[in-house]
Give the backbone structure.
Amino acid sequence: MTGAEANELNVLVLQGGGALGAYQAGAFEELFACGRRTDWVAGVSIGAINAALIAGNPPEQRTRHLQIFWERISAGGSAFSQPLGFMPRGIFNDISASTVMLQGVPGFFTPRFPPAALTPFNDPGTASFYDTSPLRKTLLELVDFDYLNTGPVRFSTGAVNVETGNMTWFDSARDEIGPEHIMASGALPPGFPAIEIDGQLYWDGGLVSNTPLQYVYDQRGETDLCIFQVDLFNARGAAPRSVWEIDARVKDIRFSSRTRLNTDSICANHAICMTGQRLYDKLPPELRDDPDALALLAHRRNPKITIAHLIYRHARYERQSKDYEFSRASMLDHWHAGQHDVKTTLTHPEWKSRHNDDTTPVRIFDLAKQRP
């Protein structure tokens, strides 16, 4: 690790995306294997679960606890645990997703009984098709919340206040994090119930922002940042040719959370801050204490920021059910894709030479666009 890399704050930004979250676990495994430390991890929905498994365990246990979680939730499924030679992969995935809808996912969620449709008026905490209490037990088993709250890795997650519709951020830098904060971030209605925290009900943070990049940028300090943004939905894609492809494409657009717009906004904000600083430096001494002049420095924090996009680009056989298709075969495919994309990024010549340019304060890389 170079001197510039050693002085960076390494941040993981983990998007929501259900079953696709194994891609993030694979990405983390490869980052850890390559010697990249993690200083701060921010996640929404399934990204919050992966983030808790990382921040809530010492370094030597993180990959193993991610493996335990993903092996557990992919242990159910259809009568066939792996695609058979005579069965097209798309059909296998559809069967697997249908099984999830009927049976739930081990260690994650189970169907409610009696079904929600037969009990139309429920307590807000039980108004859902599935019960997520198994997830709470899994989190308490696999996440050391004392370590998460006092350990070296900062943890951040977001959830939507059901009544105000506003995003609320929970951060171990100021909040006592418990399993309810992770469950709230992944409480996607109407499948999952709202989670109560301090008398307020919360839903999945992805309803407002599925990518916590802006939060990380707003909370940045003076230290240079190296952000690995691990996205599970690709904003870019071909025009759909059928109603089935329309559903998948709509989901990609909705949950990609305007990733490119966020990075463009960060670049623009950074440029404005630097312009204000340069203008302030040109002022005569007698004007530098003027309130209007000082306002130019209101956002003076201008560390250098590197953003590496790691975007899961779905396989041709994957359809709109890809985020709730929890088969072992798909989990392993997603995991290996995350490993591949990290390895491709970290060995790319552009990444290796990224510190050679000291004139560009925000650098954005998307180096793993093709995958075998």
